[in-house]
Amino acid sequence: MPTITIDGQAIEAPAGAMLLPVALENGIHIPHYCWHPKLSIDGSCRMCQVEVEGSPKLVIACNTPIRDGMVVRTKTPAVENTRRGVMELLLVNHPLDCPICDKAGECLLQDYSFAYGSRRARTREPRRKLEKRKDIGPRMILDQERCILCRRCVRFCREITKTNELGVFNMGDHSVLDILDDKPLANDYSINTADVCPVGALESKDFHHKLRVWFLKKTESICPSCSNGCNVTVHHYRDRIWRMMPRRNDAVNDTWMCDHGRLNYKHVNSAERLRQPLLRRNGQLEACEWDEALTTAATALRGAARETNGRAIAAVASPHLTNEESFRFAQLLRSVGVVNVDVAVSVGPADHFLIKAEKAANARGARDMGLRSGPGGLGLPAILDAAAKGDIRVLYVCGPDLWQTTDRQQLEQAIANLECLIVQDSVRSPLAERARIVLPSLTFAEKTGTFTNVAGRVQRLFRAVTPPEGQLGDGEIFSRLLAQVTEGLPAFEPAAVLEEIAAAVPAYTGLTFERVGPLGWQLPVGTTQPAPEATA
Amino acid sequence: MATRTVSVARPRPTAQRTTLGVWLLGARAILKGMALTHRHFVRNLWGFIRRKPTVFTVQYPEQRLPFPNAFRGMPVLVQMDNGKERCVACGLCEWACPTDCITIYPAETADEIERHPEVFDINMSRCMFCGLCEEACPEEAIVMSHNVEIAAFSRRGTLWHKDDLLIPVSKLAPRLQHIRRGYDR
Amino acid sequence: MSQDILERLRERFPTDVLAIDRYRGDASATVRPESLLEVARFAKDDPTLRFDMPLDVTAVDYIGQEPRFEVVHHLYSTKHHHRLRLKARVPEKDPTIPSVTPVWVGANWLERETYDMYGIRFSGHPDLRRIYLYDEFDGHPLRKDYPKEKRQPLIGPGSRRGASVGDEHPYAADLPAPVHDKGMLGSELMRVQLGPSHPATHGTVRIVVDLDGETIVNADVQVGYLHRGFEKECESGFYYQAIPYTDRLNYSSAILCNIGYCMAVEKLFGIETPPRCQFLRVIAGEIARIADHLLCVGATALELNAFTPFLYGLQARELIWDLVDALCGGRVTSNYVRIGGVSADMPAGFAELARQNIAKALHLLGEMEALLTDNPIFRARMEGVGQLPAEELIAYGVCGPLLRAAGVDLDLRRAQPYLVYDQLEFDVPLGSQGDNMDRYLVRTAELRQSARIIEQCLRMIPDGPVDTDDPAIRWPAKSRVYMRMEELIDQFKQVTEGPKPPPGEVYVGTESANGEIGFFLVSDGTGKPYKCRARTPSFSNTQPLARMVQGRLLADMVPTFDMINMIGGECDR
Prior knowledge:
By secondary structure, chain A is of the alpha+beta class. Chain A has helices spanning 19-25, 77-92, 108-116, 152-160, 192-196, 259-263, 290-308, 323-335, 363-368, 382-389, 401-405, 408-416, 430-433, 474-485, 494-504, 513-516; strands spanning 3-6, 9-12, 49-52, 59-60, 71-73, 134-135, 140-142, 166-169, 176-179, 202-204, 217-222, 231-237, 240-246, 278-281, 284-287, 313-317, 340-343, 394-398, 420-425, 437-440, 449-452, 457-461, 521-522. Among the domains of chain A are: 3-75, Roll (Ubiquitin-like (UB roll)), CATH 3.10.20; 278-455 and 468-535, 3-Layer(aba) Sandwich (Rossmann fold). In chain A, helix 2 (77-92) crosses helix 3 (108-116), helix 7 (290-308) crosses helix 14 (474-485) and helix 8 (323-335) runs parallel beside helix 14. By secondary structure, chain C is an alpha+beta fold. Chain C is globular, with a radius of gyration of 24 Å. The two termini of chain C are 32 Å apart. The chains are: A alpha+beta, B alpha+beta, C alpha+beta. At the B-C interface, strand 1, helix 1, helix 2, helix 3 and helix 5 of B face helix 5, helix 8, helix 9, strand 13 and helix 14 of C.
């Protein structure tokens, strides 16, 4: 492999690679605006200029392929001067918007000006006037004055979404970023342009004037909205989610995520959340203590199990539970001999990029953990028919997908003859209104665990938001129920349960939380299969 | 460098004197002291009689002393001539505050200035009047006033909201002048 | 020279000295913990080293590293006027290190504080118990894994664990056993408590005195009633947010604490402030020193029941406060000095006001002295009371007017000049006997010297910039922030991320009103200090109080304590 030297450090790099990504991957920071690892090279910002021995002028590192023996210097006076000059020119027309701009605190213009720019401004307000606060799409706002014309957003719309909404109009000093009047920035991935924009020109409406970024804490997680499992970072402050942003994972989602998934966090802090278990007493659902709710559920399960060998119990699992929670659920169901198990998943439209048909993160994982019908057991929709006939006495439903995907009448008929309907969900759904026992569930942002995406990749997520005191969490609920129907209380600690999974499920052999790592662990092909409709 | 050490002058030791000498020395010291205090007393009494007081004490609250321009009383928000706050909820004062006594909820406006604080609360019981908020503000929107008479009858009374904090810019001219002149180089 | 100190140590202990460092000119040596006592003895006894004064003992919690804790000793030599930092690492599982109290008796309280805050045990320490916090306190607050917001259970009378009426006092458990059982006449000793609220001790401190009649047999001085967690608070904020907290260390002369802290941060950056700034700092600092000494003398007079000089002193302080007010906007909480500069230049007419007010203050001081110095009652209470030999004071780490009253010429403005003190002409008053009378005379004389310094500075102060020109260190000028892009950006970055000194550690000691106030800062390269230690003179000065009054009458406790000038904020941080 060719070897180059940057600031005295010898680095091996593949032939043909560009200098900038090679430097960045080896921890050498070269400031840049227009270059992006997933977009084509532009070479317009001129910020990444460095000195290369043998070249009379400075070269831009983003478009300079490496050569064996190349000697690069990034800390010389010429480079420092050039950076200062580039910064000054970029700031000449930049409005003094920092106090009102959302990007403050994560703005590359601020960062590089502070680090490499000049100390004293030679120009002052006012700046040239362009359109501010322009509504360019259902989820995006454009401020033309702030744009530094790096064209990352233009390339994104051209190369990634292939929708071409954004463009730079006019030339030279009159250049301005804009959309065409009749074509708003409305594609399913529009908010990614706010991610790639190095300044506050493109802003997401959802986060506009909400909170300053320096308050936000960041936790790595996985998007719960479909089975693609885009890697995300949950940004939270005081136990409330303020936004989600994609995390780079070249095997799953590159540096992107869809708008729907990005905005699908509001349910976590919703006032509609179920926080306490409910029991039906005298025909009404009333709040109760955990012990009472769990004992009632365990009694119902044990009773039905004893008399019918588990045949009269059915369970519908949730594709929103983590692998660890699903595993515990499967253990619980096995312990009372339940064979009528299935996972209910909402499906919807998919595209050729990131959006998948299964609208939940862990349907595959739930099935891998054993939440599928056992020998002689029923799956969906057979479970509902059997329940309507009266063959099912206890139905344990997790998650909202059953009532979301089933015809209302069919559902009513199915639950009419049940002795005990247990519903475990995060909100009080219409199905929960019919239940005898309602158990509050946690959302993705409140759990630590793993999801398995549609392609068989096990990815980990961490708790970002602490639920209010008193909420047990699904894994703990299943563990306590298991303790009541069998002996001993298996503690629910996600990393430990993952090791149990590794021992019990052949495809997951050898997995630990550390091995999953920040970028996930791909299960060997063919070991487990997604459901047919998942890849529609 | 021109420094030197010197010994302090102790009063003359009494051990060498006779008992009478010691008593006389003591009496002299006491008389000297009493002469001093009596001088003050007479002068002040005369000033009181003439109604031109010479005492140092200020009869607060009937009399008040003027504060210097630099004085840091409680922080207030600058109100522009159109009645709106100058603050654009940038959040720097909230972040700079060492005691975390400022709470700001930013929101969008329909005006030319697109951002403003929907909520701007200062917990005055936590505020230590250090002035870092004023130093941090890039809009000259929060300044230290000369108001220190802010006692309240309840805890809730120490929480000041945006409307309580607004002071018209015309009343704040000396302070604004001080900020611009004082922090310049 | 730091070169020689470290070479000498290395030469004598080739295997025990693990590392030496001279970052920013601070001589620093890391040694094996087992050999700490031997190295300490050598550092004290060796003629070329002669580190006779223990300035500070503290620890740094490098959580995640093993060994986790680094115990840091700062030493000073009153003979050679040089400094040394001795460090040793102890592991998390068994954080034990030999105590250096056999070498320097003043390490006693300092080690107790380190034990209290970090849980490090000092083997061989005569009395290792908590000093600031109560015994039932759960945990060691300065450890990095102790969350700042952690709540502690309530204790004491009124709590569920408290004693009921009629039980022995619940706090009796934390007192040491009496030294002697029987007094002179065969009677029992009486245990009396001064404080924590006592009309004759200004400042909050609890002194448990064992009396034989009126004679003090033993006194246990318990500090910590004003402990507010200065260090923990500074670690959780940026460097610039710590400055108002330094105001609250020595609140009688807050500007001197500001100066010490900002000089330490500037040393981390390796920068010098412009000349005008240095003159301003000296002027402001000396004004604060005048205020502090006035308070000390006035309060002493008050507690000896001379109310009038106290009020004259307060009147003088009002005039001084007017100066501080005009300069920085606060009388007590000044918040004047900034990292890389000061918050504002002198306002117009300040020089004239300063001359006027200081002249009046000195006149009032003259009146106070006329009432006190020759007064037989005052003399009887102060002369010959509260002495300790100079060597013992040095071994306790005592410095400032207390030490100078005992005849030791140690004034950092002269011994290790900083700011512009080397360009100024002033006297350093020394006492001869080290009793309370000498301390009083040294303070009043110093006060007059401060006035002299201020006068010189007002004449000599050059024009020029008041702040460093580096926006990575000092916030840009406000009028430029309003109008200019680069300055606006710099303001944003500075406020939101703080100034980021390069990683390293420094110690800066300056002469505050009570002695050497030192700041030991450890930077990890971020905008928040990793460790922000304030070595406060009142803490070390209060330690020998028990020794000073041992064998004397209870009434002698009052002037001795007052002349030590224990400022609660400084002693307890």
